Amino acid sequence: MKKNTMLSKMLDVLSPPVCMFCKHPLSPSDEDGMCKDCLGRLPFTENHGCFEAFGGAAYLIAPFFYKDGVKTAIRDLKFHAKYTNAATLAGFIGYLRNIPEAASADVIIPVPLSKKSYAKRGFNQSELLGEEISRRLGLPLDTDALVKTRETKRQSSLTNFEDRAKNVLGAFACTK
Fold this sequence. Notes:
The chain is mainly alpha-helical.
């Protein structure tokens, strides 16, 4: 989403926009907070990001592997309140309309934060992403369908998928 307001243009002069993935300055032809070089190097997952997890107990869809510039962009969203990253990252979810497992979805449910984490951060990055995905796919957003039932280690502190999966297993409960 290209910024067009006079205020945005003035702010860009004072603090030129940088690529959310590599932090290099953006050129006028770059769009949505990323440079063309990074767009070509994003760590896309295979099979459109669709895969079974937890021994077939869950079906997950993730457009990227959590590494390199994607990791940087997500961490900036979470820990440095780079809200614009949510819109750019959510833009990669539009392809879900073409995936049968995703096309049959009824609702977008963001992963909740613990009350402690929410109080410290002041926002839920999953909810920001969910709002964008909901808007782009035309699906309702339900922020009350899940609750976090126990504290977990920070996912960003864990290095592999298995550890991250074990960390959150059983940490959430459905309310509806």
